[in-house]
Design brief:
9 helices; 20% strand; alpha/beta
C-alpha cells in the first residue's frame, strides 16, 4: 500500500509535471504527497575564493535570501493551485482517508534533502533527467542509490495522467534488483488490474519469470508472462513491449555500472532513462 510519496522540487519548471504524476497515484491509494523544496544557503552562493567587504557580503546574502523567498513563494502558490485542480487537498497532516499533500521547505543541498525525506517514504517521484539542460540526473541518482526507496521517473506529459499503476509491466531477470523491485512495489502490483511479466530469459541462477508468476498467484495476483528474444537493447525492448501491452507503468530494477561507486547507471538502465516516454518505477 502506498501511503507516503515524496517529490523534490525546485525552480526548473518540472515540478508541476512530477506533482501531477504523484497526484495520480495519491488518488488511487489515498496517499499523502510531501513536496520538498530545497532553499539554498546564501553562504553556498558566495563567490569561492574571493574576499568581499563585509557590507558587500551582507548585501549579497540579503539579495539571495529575497530571491530564494520569491522562488519558494511562487512554487508554493503554483503547486497549491495545481493540487486543487487535481483533487488533492493541502493539509498539515494526512488522515489516510483522502489524497492529500503538504509543503516542506528545508535549507541546504537538494541531495541531502532527498536523503532526509526519501528514506522514510513508499515512493519518490522525480522528473526524467533533461540531458540538454544538464538537469535532474543527480536528483534521480541520489534518490535511487542513497534512499533504498522505489523511485518513479516521470517523463514530460502533455496532460496530467488520470491514473497510474492500473496496467503494469515488470522487467524481470531474476536478479536481486528485480526481486527488490517486486517486493518494494507489491502494494502497487496488488492493486493493478493487469500485470505482465517481461523477460528475455536471461535469468541465469535467479528465479524465472514463471517462478514470479507463481509467487504472485499465491498472493491472489493474476499475471501473464511475455518472453522475448532481445533483437535490440533490452531496455528498449522493455519499453516497446510495455507500450504494446498498453501499460501505464513499468517496474524494474535499476543497476549501477560500478559496484564500488554507484554514480553511473548500467547500460540497460541508462537506455530506459534516456528513451522512456512512460513512467518507470526503478528500485536499486
Amino acid at each position: 500500500m502506498i501511503r507516503k510519496i515524496v517529490i523534490p522540487v525546485r525552480g526548473d519548471g518540472k515540478g508541476d509535471n512530477v506533482f501531477a504524476h504523484a497526484a495520480a497515484l495519491a488518488r488511487r491509494f489515498k496517499a499523502h504527497v510531501v513536496v520538498t523544496h530545497c532553499r539554498p544557503r546564501g553562504e553556498d552562493l558566495m563567490p569561492f575564493g574571493v574576499s568581499l567587504p563585509a557590507s558587500m557580503k551582507k548585501l549579497l546574502l540579503q539579495q539571495t535570501s529575497e530571491i530564494a523567498s520569491q522562488v519558494e513563494d511562487g512554487l508554493k502558490v503554483e503547486l497549491t493551485k495545481l493540487a486543487g485542480e487535481l483533487g488533492i487537498t493541502m493539509v498539515d497532516r494526512p488522515d489516510g482517508r483522502t489524497a492529500s499533500a503538504s509543503w516542506v521547505e528545508e535549507q541546504g543541498r537538494q541531495v541531502d534533502v532527498i536523503k532526509h525525506h526519501g528514506r522514510l517514504a513508499d515512493l519518490i517521484c522525480v522528473a526524467k533527467p533533461d540531458v540538454d539542460r544538464n538537469l535532474g540526473a543527480n536528483t534521480l541518482k541520489t534518490a535511487l542509490f542513497h534512499t533504498g526507496t522505489p523511485v518513479m521517473m516521470c517523463p514530460k506529459a502533455e496532460r496530467p495522467p488520470e491514473t497510474l499503476g492500473d496496467r503494469i509491466t515488470i522487467g524481470w531477470n531474476g536478479s536481486i534488483e528485480s526481486v527488490r523491485a517486486v517486493s518494494l512495489t507489491m502494494g502497487i502490483i496488488e492493486a493493478a488490474s493487469e500485470v505482465t511479466i517481461l523477460s528475455s530469459g536471461n535469468e541465469l541462477h535467479g528465479a524465472t519469470a514463471e517462478d514470479l508468476q507463481t509467487y504472485l498467484g499465491d498472493r491472489g495476483i493474476a499475471s501473464r508472462v511475455e518472453r522475448f528474444v532481445a533483437r535490440k537493447k533490452i531496455g528498449q525492448e522493455l519499453l516497446d513491449r510495455s507500450h504494446a501491452a498498453g501499460a501505464d507503468t513499468l517496474i524494474m530494477g535499476a543497476y549501477s555500472d560500478s559496484h564500488e561507486r554507484e554514480t553511473i547507471f548500467g547500460g540497460n538502465t541508462q537506455n530506459v532513462v534516456d528513451r522512456s516516454t512512460m513512467p518507470v518505477i526503478f528500485v536499486h
